[in-house]
Write a structure and sequence with these properties.
The protein is mainly α and 158 residues long. It is 41% helix and 9% strand. It is built from two helices and five strands, in the order H-E-E-E-E-E-H. The strands form two sheets. The protein has a three-stranded mixed sheet with strand order 1-3-4. A hairpin with a 4-residue loop joins strand 3 and strand 4.
Length: 158
């Protein structure tokens, strides 16, 4: 009987340690994806600024590229690893969003929502965050990866 109890205790300890190791691995993986998304957003924005300075593409009245061309990035398009595969690459803001600094929908709630949002009227690039986190976590992620200081993840009514 003592052997069975000792074996069960040992088995439980192994299970707890395995669970802790798995949790640590998932946190580390998430941290890496957050850092990569942050750097990819910065790389995207840098390319927008470079294209604006080179003036080899159509520019808006404010001097930013009117659209984003995948060729600017060669075979290495910026990506948002916080979102699962299947999301569109970039959404270009239309005239109705010309004065916005952030997309109206900052959380990618469906695959039809692009990984990135670009406003050609201000040169702003924003990465969207996943829908499978809490609102508070989504806000922290959004602010970090986009270098912003919003107090709400949700857009306010105009």
């Amino acid at each position: 009987m003592r052997l069975i109890i000792d074996s069960l205790v040992a088995l439980m300890l192994v299970g707890v340690l395995a669970g802790m190791a798995l949790h640590h691995r998932r946190e580390k993986d998430m941290d890496q994806r957050i850092e990569l998304t942050h750097s990819e957003t910065q790389r995207f924005h840098s390319q927008i600024m470079l294209q604006a300075a080179m003036e080899k593409t159509q520019l808006t009245q404010r001097g930013y590229p009117a659209t984003v061309e995948p060729e600017w990035f060669g075979e290495n398009l910026p990506r948002n690893p916080l979102l699962p595969e299947g999301h569109a690459w970039v959404e270009v803001a239309g005239d109705s969003q010309r004065d916005l600094e952030h997309p109206p929908k900052r959380i990618a709630t469906g695959r039809e929502m692009a990984q990135f949002w670009y406003n050609p009227h201000s040169g702003v690039v924003r990465a969207r965050v996943p829908a499978d986190v809490s609102d508070a976590t989504a806000l922290r992620l959004y602010n970090y990866i986009n270098d912003t200081k919003l107090d709400s993840i949700f857009a306010r009514e105009q």
